[in-house]
């Protein structure tokens, strides 16, 4: 057995100095080679205050000043530890403190019987406020079990708020947008009603809401890729070569979750591989780099409504769209808009955890026979968004949406009538947002 | 117990048709609603030949033609199944067939006793040819166990090949570049001599070489982010919304692996968190999107030497650089060059699996006292590479490297003398590559 060597006299002296920091008013007598050790020991002990920092900087030693710069330690008005990403994040930031009053769960009810869905989610959802929006096409009465703080909105409620003259269609999966509109919370989490909580690799139930909120509360890093994924997760960090000036990150506006069991495939892929299931639980969250587009799925998503709310709205709607995810591209279009806007406004989009367990529904071969439009439209949609540049004058999500609508009308309008329709819906949505959501 | 319902007559008829495909010469009599089912059944059975494809296209049915287009099925000269990414990949591509003669393992020996290192890697390395380059600064004789096909290169060999007039320094970690230069193989895998094989979440030994080669042999997808990570892995796929026209992907030129136990941190981070270990095995490979930079680590990396060889060379060398990874930025600089070049040439860079187990070595606090240059230089290096545009005329890795060297000299040369030196080394490296590697 290896026994630990006894501490050196120097080490004991430094420990003692850390303990008696308040008595030290001058560091000039401390030899250079001890100074850095002492500074690191203080940092690790979480004892760096404004006063102590001033003492170290007063030594004028290059090594210390470089370390202060590299770790992005700054003077602030209140005594404080080094920046979150430098020292504190592992112990604090990763365990996001969730304020129940800052979160709305929005559920678009495409099926009348929500009993199983709600009961499965009970351990996770019951502490939050729920906004359940009933698909206006759904005739039956909703069945919602007891034990939730839920507000339910039906066709009549939508019409009362939106008005009857609106051309925005909140039917099918788009009914969730009404929930986003009437929410008054900072964070919105939205999960399709054919999903139940997933389990992680260790067999534990995944708290999708906590993970989404943690993703949104910790910074995103879109300007440089970190090979160990989200540096703000417990146990992770920025790797060698990651510029210190970019380690502060930016606010995260969108958190895209994933799916176990039934993956979110398009109808042709699903039809071809009816038995393929997604079984790989990838234990990672990452920021999608700036200028890279992703297919944001509406199945399991969360966003900072205050930061980006109006950018998450209805727009593209296929003519033959049904009540199956693989028949829609509304969320994919929405994701293109929101990613371009986040890149423009300097906000982040994360993807990865949390997973949800997605159950089987529908027949992809039947969808194939019915609907091909969505897959084909993507060939125009992606190059459009890849080359889209928003004007510097667009500094809010609202203005960005109107600018995108303008560009859609000009550049895509001739390709297919659904694009002109999408542009009009976007403009109308922004108007509605200004009236309802800011009201 | 649920019993499967008996097959329908229609289903049996289609099955029979699939079995007797060769007898069918005309599909015009088949009702529309059966045609698509039959086509899908043929695809799944892997029986789509050129002749059968022609039969289906001859029907002129929109549904079938759309499916052919969407799945990117093309006429080719030899009878063939639909494109790899459409159907075949899950059964074939993911299990990369590795030709031993296409792979060189390059080891930079910074330590004389390679016994443990080599023995640990024996199950994985022994079938491949090894190029072991001894750090020219290392005085002791190398100790290499039996059972390998290894060529060992020492200072004298380097001088004989490179010449004595060369200013390129192949010492320290840079000795591995000499191995890249003299390799004649398509793929090069390079792993630091303080790493041993890692185990995956199930406790199985990770075959890092097989994973690297699989990453390099399957396409990369830099132009659109796939939320289920590498779509070419077994069980994975392209998600809904991923444009079909981009599913073919591009050639992958670089595979960056990761590290368990000791992560690849810089000296300040390591000094601050001496006890932090990377314990999260993230079971994913992903393409780093085009125009996003990453800190490519030299610890565990592989590349397609034919595609990008000259772009992986020595350049930036810190004046106080030692024999510890956290004291170097040579690989980080190299990674910036190669990513910019891959983006320019339409090649892909992947990161993620395989992991290696990295053992402890050195004292980060001592490195902190000695060397700060690297961390500071990144603040100039990253913006430079982020804004770098290579001319359209640069169509090879060699020409791209010379163009980057030119820009480095012009734009960074004044900031610090190491940059001018890096630019000169890059030009000299390309010359050397042309003489030696293409010789």
Automatic annotation (TrEMBL), chains A, B:
One protein family per Pfam: RGP
Gene Ontology biological process terms, A to Z: cell wall organization; UDP-L-arabinose metabolic process
Source organism, top-level taxon: Eukaryota
Localization annotation: Golgi apparatus
Any one cellular-component term (Gene Ontology): cytosol
Keyword S-adenosyl-L-methionine: no
Family per similarity comment: Belongs to the RGP family.
Protein's recorded name: UDP-arabinopyranose mutase 5
Organism: Vigna mungo (Black gram)
